[in-house]
Task: inverse folding
């Protein structure tokens, strides 16, 4: 009996998408993007490449030479990639980092969808950021991307960081970079400590945790004292492993609206996908696949801790 023919997964017309970083094996982007590609029946394939720091220029030239449609960029290349691109869009220039590149007419164009992804997560949860006041905890890469995106639409952002000088540097940089925006948010900086939190939280609509506090495997701790949480109506944690951090648990118990970091991860990927392919991906499917991977990794870690053999 003749077996039914399945359409080939990859042909000579298949367009390539990728993610580059080092290390790269933990990236969830190939799983999320390939699920979205398959659901739409698009002729694309998304792969992961480990690219060492000293090979970044060659990798960019390779992407251009091979006509790759686009690629994501992760640690440690988000800042250094900018020197190898033909164009960087204004928001990514303000952030000073690129996480998504598209090949347009032979030119490598860089964009940063991390902050945009966070803003879309706010909107999805009925919290449009326009005109709102935010407290951003942390001053690293995630805080920079989110604060830069918020500068375009929010009313005010207070950046609270453990190392005040780093928070001040972020605020000074973004205030200067946002000078040409029509009505940029006002920005201020404070040290991340109980007294400043007690002063700032009653004045904001949304708190955004951009520190890794509470992240696997150091769960059960929160960057915010639980008794201060009722002062903030909405709490967003960029940490997505675990899905429900101690901060989000405390916030829910205090009656706040809570938003988890997985929504930002899915949305930054969805915005890149739309930019490359012109099609809107199934974000619920992308989230489902990401969730499945996170659960699998967790089970793997727990079995490892209990001395069971790792599944091959
Ligand atoms: P980063 O550049 O290393 O910055 C970390 C920030 O957290 C710094 O401001 C640091 O303060 C602060 N911090 C670290 N440990 C702290 C502690 N124990 N108490 C108080 N503050 C502390 O990191 P990043 O790239 O911004 O990433 C931060 C978090 O964002 C990670 O947990 C990551 O999972 C999450 N993230 C999520 C997404 C997403 O799509 N959901 C995307 C990117 C990042 P100092 O300046 O004082 O050192």
Result:
């Amino acid at each position: 009996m003749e077996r039914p023919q399945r359409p080939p997964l990859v042909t000579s017309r298949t367009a390539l998408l990728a993610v580059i970083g080092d290390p790269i094996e933990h990236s969830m982007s190939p799983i999320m993007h390939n699920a979205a590609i398959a659901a739409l029946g698009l002729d694309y394939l998304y792969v992961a490449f480990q690219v060492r720091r000293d090979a970044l220029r060659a990798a960019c030239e390779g992407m251009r030479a091979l006509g790759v449609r686009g690629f994501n960029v992760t640690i440690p290349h988000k800042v250094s990639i900018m020197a190898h691109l033909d164009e960087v869009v204004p928001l990514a220039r303000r952030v000073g980092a690129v996480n998504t590149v598209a090949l347009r007419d032979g030119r490598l164009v860089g964009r940063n969808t991390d902050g945009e992804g966070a803003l879309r997560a706010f909107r999805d949860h009925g919290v449009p950021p326009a005109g709102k006041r935010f407290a951003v905890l942390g001053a690293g890469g995630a805080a920079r991307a989110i604060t830069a995106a918020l500068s375009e639409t929010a009313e005010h952002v207070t950046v609270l960081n453990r190392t005040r000088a780093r928070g001040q540097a972020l605020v000074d940089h973004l205030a200067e970079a946002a000078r040409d925006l029509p009505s940029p948010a006002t920005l201020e900086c404070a040290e991340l400590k109980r007294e400043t939190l007690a002063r700032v939280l009653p004045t904001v609509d949304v708190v955004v945790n951009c520190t890794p506090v509470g992240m696997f495997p150091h769960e059960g701790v929160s960057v915010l004292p639980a008794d201060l949480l009722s002062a903030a109506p909405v709490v967003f944690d960029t940490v997505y492993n675990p899905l429900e951090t101690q901060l989000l648990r405390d916030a829910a118990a205090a009656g706040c609206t809570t938003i988890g970091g997985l929504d930002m991860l899915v949305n930054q990927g969805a915005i890149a996908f739309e930019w490359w392919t012109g099609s809107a991906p199934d974000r619920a499917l992308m989230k489902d696949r990401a969730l499945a991977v996170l659960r699998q990794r967790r089970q793997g870690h727990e079995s490892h801790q209990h001395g069971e053999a790792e599944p091959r």
Observations:
- DSSP finds ten helices and twelve strands in the chain.
